[in-house]
Amino acid sequence: METRDQIYEGKAKILYATDDPTRLVQYFKDDATAFNAQKRGSIHDKGVVNNRMSERLFRYLEENGVHTHFVERLDDRRMVVLRLKMLPIEVIVRNRIAGSFAKRMGLTEGGDLKRRILEFCLKSDALGDPLITDDHIFALGLVEEGVLAEVKRVTDQVNGLLTAFCAERGLQLVDFKLEYGIDADGRVTLADEICPDTMRLWDVKTGEKKDKDRFRHDLGGVEEAYQEVLARVLG
């Protein structure tokens, strides 16, 4: 497969066209951002960790009936993915009280929820990815009702699978972000990445944070936490 022109660069990844119009190459960077890119930095080998971890988790989800954009990993920093029409929303799954939700609701981080929460954000760096409701989504014509229903169904399936996967490795899946697109056959498809950048992972025994919160809040040991999570996931 021939890699061609760059078609997109985000905060953590670059997408390249290929000689196959149905495939892209996704490159993982070491750049790190937080608080809607107000904080910027770099995490050594973050791109390598996120690429390899995403590969493992996409394969696991595919094996359990979830359709993803993953095709193959090319090397430490690149994977081949399906070319999708991306949905203009992000999906956030919250299994425990943490992060911006705790701050927004005036709650103590770490508290339990009676059930999982699904939140939606408009994908807009300029607007700070604002929270939106189902009514916003339908009124603005962002996503069709049937598509959003399928996104919710797949998200609950992914949450169940990843929660169990992480628990087997001594990690609690506190919350995480997902993105979706529509493939050439019109199928809702899980996209983007699944890694410590997009998940809150706490050690089951100690409660220690093993994710990008270590970068966000200057907790130290960022690279070590990423490498440890990768080792648990691959192990």
User: Compute the gyration radius: what is it?
Assistant: 17 Å
Q: If classified by CATH, what would the architecture of the largest domain be?
A: 2-Layer Sandwich
Q: Largest sheet, described in full? A: 6 strands, antiparallel
Distance between the termini: 30 Å
Q: Count the DSSP helices.
A: 6
Q: How many domains make up the 3D coordinates?
A: 2
The fold-level CATH name of the largest domain is D-amino Acid Aminotransferase, Chain A, domain 1
Mean pLDDT: 96
Query: SS-based structural class?
Result: alpha+beta
How many strands? 13
Model description:
There is one protein chain. The protein is 30% helix and 34% strand. It has two domains: 3-82, Phosphorylase Kinase, domain 1 (2-Layer Sandwich); 85-221, ATP-grasp fold, B domain (D-amino Acid Aminotransferase, Chain A, domain 1, 2-Layer Sandwich). It contains six helices and 13 strands. A hairpin with a 4-residue loop joins strand 6 and strand 7. The protein has helices at 46-63, 99-105, 134-139, 145-167, 213-216, 222-234; strands at residues 3-9, 13-18, 23-28, 31-34, 39-42, 70-73, 78-82, 85-96, 112-122, 131-132, 171-182, 188-190, 199-203. It is α+β, with helices and mostly antiparallel strands and 235 residues long.
